[in-house]
Amino acid sequence: MRRIAVLAAAGLLSACQTASGQSEQAPAPLAVPDAVDALGTEPFWAVMVDADQIALTRPDHPPATGPNSGPTRTATFARWETKTGQGKLKLTVTAGPCSDGMSDRTYPFSAQAVIAGRTLKGCAAEAGARGER
User: 25 pLDDT exceeds 80?
Assistant: First the structure.
């Protein structure tokens, strides 16, 4: 009986050592769709990301488009970067409810677009989705 207790204790100790000896796994990447629509107000802007390209549109500016090589994903954000005729365009999407400030819609992601040193802030959703009312 004593031998069984010693073996059981040894088994528990080895299980603890195995669990503590393993390296911690990195958190899963943020679940953002590969195709997103991002938009902002004041100033108005929109970025559409599809399988092939990333396109920024703004009033009084020519469209800025470039190829989509896919996002970089971490546990907290997804980021797309491309070169356009107007400079480097970077779109960063983070999780969390977002309001566009002009409607009653709520979007599942916040967005930040940067082009030619200008930062544009807004919201994002899966391409084709227009947020929730």
Answer: no
Task: Please check the confidence at residue 70 and state whether its pLDDT lies above 70.
Answer: yes
Tell me how crowded residue 126 is: count the other CB atoms within 10 A of its CB.
Answer: 14
Q: Which residue bears the tokens 């907290």?
A: 76
User: What pTM was estimated for this model as a whole?
Assistant: 0.76
Phi and psi dihedrals of 22, rounded to 5? -80, 145
Sheet strands (E) in the chain: 36-40, 45-49, 53-57, 64-67, 72-73, 77-84, 87-99, 106-115, 118-126
Residue 3 clears pLDDT 70, i.e. is over it? no
Angle (CA) 89 94 96, round 5°: 145
CA–CA distance, 22 with 125 (Å, rounded to integer): 37
Q: How far apart are CA 27 and CA 76, in angstroms?
A: 9
